[in-house]
Amino acid sequence: MAVRPPTVSLGLxxxxxxxxxxGVVIVVLVIAASLISQLLVHYWWFQETGYTSVFWTTxxxxxxxxxxxxxxxxxxxxxNVFLAYRLRPAFRPMTAEQQNLDQYRxxxxxxxxxxxxxxxxxxxxFGGYAGQAEYKSYLLWANSTPFGVTDPxxxxxxxxxxxELPFWRFVLxxxxxxxxxxxxxxxxxxxxxxxxxxxxxxxxxxTGALGHLAVLLGVFVLMKAVGYWFDRYDLLxxxxxxxxxxxxxxxxxxxxxxxxxxxxxxxxCAIAFFATLIMKNFAIPAMSLALMVVASLAIGAAYPAIxxxxxxxxxxxxxxxxxxxxxxxxxxxxxxxxxxxxxxYPAEATAEPAAIRADTGTIPHLRLLDPNVISDVVQxxxxxxxxxxxxxxxxxxxxxxxxxxxxxxxxxxxxDPSNFTxxxxxxxxxxxxxTHGYGLVAAPANEMDASGLxxxxxxxFEGGLIxxxxxxxxxGELNNExxxxxxxxxxxxxxxxxxGEDGDSEVKTTYDGEGGVPVNNIFSKMVFAINYAETxxxxxxxxGSNSKVIYNRxxxxxxxxxxxxxTADGDPYPAVIDGRIKWIVDGYTTSDKYPYSxxxxxxxxTTDAQTGTGTAALxxxxxxxxxxxxxxxxxxxxxxxxxxxxxxxxxxxQTWEKVYPGVITPKSDIPEELSAHFRYxxxxxxxxxxxxxxxxxxxxxxxxxxxxxxxxxxxxxxxxGDQPAYYVRSQLPGEKKSTFKLTSALTAQNKDNLTAYVxxxxxxxxxxxxxxxxxxPSSNVFGPGQVQSQFKSDETVKTSIRNLGSDGSHIIxxxxxxxxxxxxxxxxxxxxxxxxxxAAYPTMQNIxxxxxxxxxxxxxxxxxxxxxxxxxxxxxxxDMPGGTGDTGSSGDPDDSGDGSDNGDTNAxxxxxxxxxxxxxxSSPAVIAANTELQDAIAAYDEAAKAGDYAAMGEAQAxxxxxxxxxxxxxxxxxxxxxx
Length: 979
Description:
alpha+beta, six-stranded mixed β-sheet, globular
């Protein structure tokens, strides 16, 4: 008789069990409290913004899917485990195998019901979790909107692939997994209870086990047949073809029939498994399964590869032609490039002075300020207090003032907790005192004052030319820490802004906007305390009945939360609308299921040399359909989010509007003042310009051989990545007036020569019109990289660089703008100099210009045009403030200079914005004004070194006064026309 080995007791004492239970209860309560607090804080945020319908639709859908797919998984898995148990044989052979299994059966038998419950519950949880994760696919499937476009192979509406097929694919995959798990668990149960006998001679399967497993295998193979049928549609997203996506010749002529045959073979195989119920034998199903595997390898893999190698590849340009044409048409449609206007451009450098002088659409708007470079200037001059900051990249927008539209560099003074000193970095300061930024800063993009600095029209805290009624910035890009605002009628405690001539006095304020979630009772305080793990929510006496918590404060985060179906552009920008500062955020609807369209990586394609410097990278997702479907605004004071419909014909947006009714505001409700500030967004433009480099080719044979492909110009200043796209105002050939555009230069695929110039209009009336100026194939037009090399190798430029950097100052190259002008191409690049001291900031010292093969290094646009095109060419620039003064021969702001030449024809003088010279022949009034200006600049630099903000403000005012006086003196000293 066998002796059972002694068992080890793991029993706990009564006290230990109680402590264990208490510990488990505490852990569960802590986890539950944390989850509930997160959910409540999340819901309250939607309640604050007025978009609770988004919250409820999302969570209700996820809950329903969790229940449905959880129940399906539980029923299938639980039923099959239960059935396997019920089909256990009444008698088992007395073999060593069965005797070894007896000990497991004795353990499981008393707990069979509990085991079944545990397995069923686990299946429910895993199935429910998988189902709720696909809520977006379900919502698209349930609210599908036709595209009105059919695919060229099956004639199905694109909506089938975009909205319906993905969800059917998930359902099929879900059932695959559930049946596979059921099969494995059923086989385990059958084995434990003797239905499967691996080491027993004779029949290895009991009748019940054989039939049960055969049916499960038959269902599994039947679903494989459905999978093969779906694979036919997935061929339209194949990547087998060269240079194009979508079904290739091999896919259509070999893989498509192969998938159809495999689906039929799988159905036959499934029938064979079901027939086991009658034949009581696995031989035929096993043979059919082997046949399916062989067919899958031979028909599904080998045949298409052979066909591609021996039929397609030898004549690929002919065999693939119709499929390349399909890919061309689909890609252009999916990315909104069907109506791109291509125009031949002569790119000749033969313009006469009269033609340049007659230009009124481009020359007066040539932008001199580089929004990336002057961020340091704005930071130094407009920061005022260390708690404030500006983004690394400023924004460009346009305003119409007194009937004249001008481009401005704009930014808002935001609160930046990363700048806080150690003493400032405590909970009270960070969350209750320093709560917001203050004010808009703006400067004309085409102006520099005589000291090489922007002419601010809005600065510091006194307002300016652009009227702002509510300048406080509670919602912005630089601060996403929560803030507690509002009080019970006591003294104001929020720091608002510095005042007084010395800047030491402070104004306090109390937030009275609509934004924020009330935290006015012990329950809400406890919820926020748990959510943020911060007891001060409960202990701090200043949090009263009128207090609110402001959180989720960045514009992109807020827009993507209320409209979870969009991807926000990486560069929100502020605009003053009806006296209030609002962030404008472009939103994209995307899909990766547009048949035959080219697959693009969002992150990779939209990343350029400046991504991450004041702009955010897009998600690492692959898409083949993009639309700028919405324009959204976020009020900088109260956080109000409004999402406007922009692309009224986008089926993806229409589908989401069915899902979340009332979230999208109709396009017709967009205020005219707001639409005047809309810009063509950068990220979709980067995607489109990349596609244009290939899909401008219309001949399938040329496309296959990559004949005539272009590439986006590399950054000319040596940074890694593509040259960023630039906003400019210009007038292209055929345009009746200048328009605000987003532009980019394209070069040859293997050379740096310019091949095309692409621009997208932003002004109302022409918004979204994309124009591509193509250079003559035989031309040798310099691209941005070549022009930059030409600048750096020019002897006059090199001499200027040596002189400007002689005291340790360094040169900063600004944005190199490409501008079509008078049949040719004008390149304009500002050159900045930054001194070696910590307090120094860049000042523009020269303007580099190039046209044809000619290079000019000048102080003003007028002077440059005169040099490049001949005397009088720049007369039209006289009304345009576009020059800068030289602060000394070294160009260092900390060195006023002695006016000596040192061999540099551009050093030692301070010309007027409109041209002329302040050299040795200037009148005493000009010399005196210039001296006063240099003294003011020196005073400002000394104040900056000392960190004396009050003195900096006074000196800045004197700089502007002196610059104005110098301009007046130069105008009075200028020779009359014809002299």
